[in-house]
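Chain X:
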Amino acid sequence: MVTIMLFTVRFAAQMLLLFTVWCSGTSASDAVSILPSTQALSLIVKEVTGDVRLPLLPANVSPHDFSLKPSHIRRLQGAELVVWLGPKVEPYLAKVMAQIPDHQQFIINQGQLALEYGQHPWTSPEYLLQGLQQLSLRMGKDWDSDAWLNQMNKLKQQLLAHQFTLTQKNQGYLVYHDGIGGFEGYFGLQHLASFTGADDQPPGAKQLATIAQLAQEQKVACVLIDHEVRPKLVNAVLSPSIDRITIDILATNSDSLIGYVNELQKAVLSCGADK
């Protein structure tokens, strides 16, 4: 009986030791409290870590002109790692992040691309790919880019073919504001004109006149509209016969990066498509 009891105690101690060693060997990234600033960045974090992290900003809010509340500041200060877009794209975060140690923050593609206020770099698959690679290295996670590159290549072939079809019809598409420049640059696309250059700037008279002329010449197949659209203004310039196609620049309705890029692609492919 004593032998059996000693064996049981010894076995329990060994199991406890193994459990302790296993826990200590677990990657540090598994326990890190990560706070992505936007929905698009939360999708990058999810792709790398496999975990869903609630972003600082509501999913349908642009990162350009957001006002921080005390609760937001507490979340930033309490996170072990803040993933954000940097002071040029997210100036509202610059002051707070300047007080947070470098090892507790990670700027996607810092120094890789020349970014300016008003741009939406996360619409570019190249930008997203670089962000995925950098964050996976930072977190010590393995991430294979082959599937991503293969998928993007398929989307590119489809988009270029559609762009060619529109060109043959002497038509193209409008955007409400220049919010998908990264997407267009990567896939070799170009819109005819935009209502405004940034989502917080009103359309100018010259831009409206250009758009009205293009519509009159029947060169407009559709207009891609986003979260900042002013429907009355669009309707005053474009006839109802020109399709209004909604695009989700902020990834509000996406639960994966591939899904996000796919939805942008579908929106462009639906422009001028035969009903």
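Chain Y:
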Amino acid sequence: MKRPTFSALIIARNEEAMLANCIATLRWCNQILVLDDGSTDDTAKIAEQSGAKVIAFRHNSFARKREELLKRAQTDWVFYIDADERVVPTLAKEMMVVAETQKADAMRFRRNNIYYGQLLKYGGWGSDFVTRAFKRESLKGWFGDIHESPEFTGAIVDIKTPIIHLTHRDTASGLFKSAAWTPMEADALAAADTKPVTFFTIFRKGFMEFLRRAVLKRGFKEGMVGWIEALIQGMNRMLVYIQVWERQQKPTIAEKYQKTERDIQQLWQDKE
């Protein structure tokens, strides 16, 4: 029986600090592809030095980026993984066994999320499941620009060994992540003709997300890290709705600044 082959597919932007160690946990794969999404650091260089093939491709849609990687894969299975995620040996072995012995077309994983150096079990993070490995012929594509979802046919198998997710390693990196995805979510909400955003809307969305994470999902049981993470998630919701409010302004904020610039130039012209 032919041993199934795997491609590891990674989307990366400015991940020079995390990428090499990620690739080091993927040596069991037959092909490693890194989609460089406009990095300004040494991400592409490190990927090549680590033995991966680099694809330069920029797009706002994560679904489109995942599909671009899929087009380049040449193996029986594709496995999507982020630069801040890690595979342990037991996980690699389990994936190979499932691919060889079970009638599976996709694999679903639990993620062990490590925030500020602490494994989180509460606040919604202990039940974080992602479907990331697919028989290539069964994966039809991806849809959704931000929280993208796969479209596939066939049976899905739950994998027991978790993926390790080394996220929110410090506040600054977390803020960079928020700056990257909150505008896209705001675009989607604004395009959906969301009701006019008020100050109460912004406050309510942030407070309810904080309450959901800290209390309803018992994030408080994590101690200080749980409270901070709930607060960050609440702040992220507020940032999304602040940006929805921006997009709802008529005239636009950019047009207001342009008018101010014209008015200043007119003052100088009138002085001549």
